Amino acid sequence: MTAPDLPAALAPDARLPAEPWNDPKATPLIKIRNVIKRFDGFVAVDDVWLDIYKGEFFSLLGPSGCGKTTLLRLLAGFEQPTSGTIEIDGVDMADVPPHRRPVNMMFQSYALFPHMTVEQNVGFGLKQEHVPRREISRRVGEMLELVQLADLGRRRPHQLSGGQKQRVALARALIKRPKLLLLDEPLGALDRRLREQTQFELVNIQETLGLTFIIVTHDQDEAMTVSTRIAIMDRGRTVQVGTPGEIYEYPNSLYVAGFVGDVNVFEGRVVEAGKDHVTVRSPESGCDIYTDRGIDAVPGQEAYAAIRPEKIEIGKAPPADARFNCVTGRVFDIAYLGSLSTYHVRLATGEVVKVSAANRSRLVERPITWEDQVWLWWPPSASVVLLS
Amino acid sequence: MKAGFTPATVLALTCGFAFLYLPILLLVAFSFNESRLVTVWGGFSLKWYGEMLRNRQLMDAAWVTVRIGLVSASLALVLGTLAGVTLARFTRFPGRTVFSGLVFAPLVMPEVITGLSLLLLFVSLDWARGFWTVAVAHTTFASAYVAVIVQSRLLTFDIILEEAAMDLGASPLKTFFVITLPVIAPALVSGWLLAFTLSLDDLVVASFTTGPGATTLPMRIYSQVRLGVTPEINAVSTVLIGFVTLGVITATLIQKRRFADGQKRKA
User: What global pTM score does this model have?
Assistant: First the structure.
């Protein structure tokens, strides 16, 4: 599904450099510095430091209660930080009330005004700026076109479906073309199919209008799909910030590895660590795990080797080189997911390893089945070694 | 769920309603009585309604009552709304419990006490008693009712709506007028109607605080009845009952419909 052709007034800004966060000369649009927010002794946001650049689709991802919504409300101005500063486009937001910030928000509950029509809701922001009525109705028309609600302008919120309300809320937040759009669980109330479709539309709209989005979500798939970068949050802190690929491939802690996607973790001790490799001996796996990515650790130190299920090969015969990164066990469970199968393999040590493999052949020809003795192996690039 | 009507429950219901409304029905019926004798039916007639309209004293009292009702209901609406907003929105400030107690006390205060204390106040302030003292007195207890209605409405009002308006550039004051007030308007209308109705049928407080030239309709009726009940009084009482019923029914309907009246406002 693609966004409809845009009217000239909504033409995109000049293309942005692909990865401004890697460019030392780039100035961030939003600078969050040492921000702490306390409520009655409870720390909701704990010393957050973030740079977010123009044109980004930035996700705050974490379980409920991790402080992500509070951080969003700090940006919108509904809450004041206990300490620390927030700068938007070079302006310190400390004394700027919500109605003067160049920021608009799309609320989780949509917060449509019940006593106004769809058109009045969408035009509300422009009306506050005393834009001439004629221009308001033109821009409202364009915006409703963009979110594909052109013929529902006269309806009231209670006459709309959940998906339609979501679009009205988005149109209302977008119409002032804010420097920054905040989205609080924008797709949370939609069913799965509609949510997936809307994720792509959101990205399309964001790219076409050239705006900066910050989205709060607890849905890792959603964050992976839409984001340029993700900040993983836990108990008020940002644990890791990176692109979806970085977060998934190189998590910096067990928390992140477990939060995004499935992962097998072997606990062990570092045997040897160099600039470009680490070897971990794990009694749980019964083999040495060799990783071709260096880590700052000393031999003997406790460490965890994390391996994604889809990076493990499975076979009924041992691989040619079984000195390391190779374990054996019995299949005790198979989850058939259509395109994929996930094998649960119990090792001799009792440890269970998950392996997922694409079902290239038909189910009836499945070569590996319950109680089969199997070997699992993976290349040195498949694992990451974590110290916490 | 089906309402299970049995002979016993029907009887209980009939007796209950009869006990409550038979006297009023009798009064309404006898207001259409041809005969001058209140207790003897002499045929249907509207003549006492004509008499009522020709009775200057009665009409003056009715006019005073309506004006007091309008003034006190409007003042009570403003004060009660402010109190209701304060109680609903500011959940913690020093003296909140005392404030809330003071706001709601007039609801349970015996009318005689309210009337007497107001009279003492007006006397000590040396205010000339009349139209305005009654209006002020009615405002005091009616604003408590408005405050209750506004507060309970605001407790179910989603504060996110105000945040959304401010986020889109409306100042807090503007937000209150273009978002909060329209959304809670039904509660305000029903609060006003209730205040008006309370003022309309008040006898006790008005008797304490009135002065020359400001006799309200209930007071006029009461003093005339002491000289004997005339069908004319029945007629004026019937009209009064009509107004009060209308006010209460409208207030209830508005409260129930809330903002579901959506469709027809913008054509």
Answer: 0.77
